[in-house]
Amino acid sequence: MLIRARDVEKRYGRAWALRAVSFEVDEGGCLLVTGPNGSGKTTLLRLVCGLAAPTGGVLEVGVDRAGLGFVGHEPLVYRDLTALENLELYGRLYRVPERRERTGMLLERFGLWDARNQRVSGYSRGMTQRLALCRALLHDPQLVVLDEPYTALDDEGAGVLDRELEMLAEERTLVVSTHDAGRIDALADTRLALA
Questions:
Q1: What is the fold of 1-63+170-195?
Q2: DSSP assigned state of 67
Q3: How far apart are alpha carbons 120 and 73 in whole angstroms?
Q4: What is the mean pLDDT of the chain?
Q5: What strands lie across the sheet with 3-12, from one edge to the other?
Q6: 3-class DSSP state for residue 11?
Q7: What gap in Å lies between CA 87 and CA 177, rounded to an integer?
Q8: Which of 43, 49, 131, 135 is the most exposed place for a label (fewest CB within 10 A)?
C-alpha cells in the first residue's frame, strides 16, 4: 500500500475542507478524485503531497518528497527563465542523472522543443501547463500527483497528456483530480468522489 487514508479531515478555522475521507492506493495504482469545485479535491492532493497537514485522521504516504511529482494550480516554473533553464534548475535540485537527455526527451514529447529557448513569460497558458508537467516528471517520480492537469491544454496537449498518463500508469502510482473524469476513468483502479 503506497497511500493509506483513514478518516482524514482538514479544517481551516471553522470551515471544513474535508471530512472523514478514507481510501487506499496500491503501489502502481491510480486514484481518480472527482467532485465539484469546493469539494476538497485540491486540499486532499495538498495533504498527499505533504504541503498541508491533516486536522484529523491518519494519512500515510510511502514515498518521500524526492519521489513525488506534483502539478497544482500554479505551474511552479520561473517565468523569466526559458524552458531549458527551468528544467536545468529543477534537474540540478533533484540531482537527475543525464538531465540534459531527460530534459530534451520531455520537451520533445510535450511539444515544447521548438520553444525551449523562449522565456516562459512569452508562453501561452497551455504551453506553461505542458512545461509544468515536464517539471513534475523530470526526476522520474514514483508518485505523480496531478490537480486538474488538463487545465488550459488544447486538444493536442490533452492528447499528449492522455498518452503520457497511459505510459505512467504502467509503472508509477498516480493520484489525479479532474472534472473530466472520462479521460482518466479507464486508468483508475480506485475512485473517490468528494461532495
A1: Rossmann fold (3.40.50)
A2: G
A3: 16
A4: 96
A5: 15-25, 3-12, 56-61
A6: strand
A7: 24
A8: 49
**Extended beta strands in the chain, E state:** 3-12, 15-25, 30-34, 56-61, 68-71, 143-147, 173-177, 190-193
What φ, ψ does residue 77 adopt, rounded to 5°? -125, 155
Give the residues of the chain that fall short of pLDDT 50. Answer: none
**Grid coordinates 515536464 are at which residue?**
134
What distance in Å separates the CA atoms of residue 31 and residue 174, rounded to the nearest whole number?
6
Tell me the per-residue pLDDT of 17-67, one tens digit each, with 9 for 90 and over. 999 999 999 999 999 999 999 999 999 999 999 999 999 999 999 999 999
Cα three-residue angle 154-179-24, rounded to 5 degrees: 125
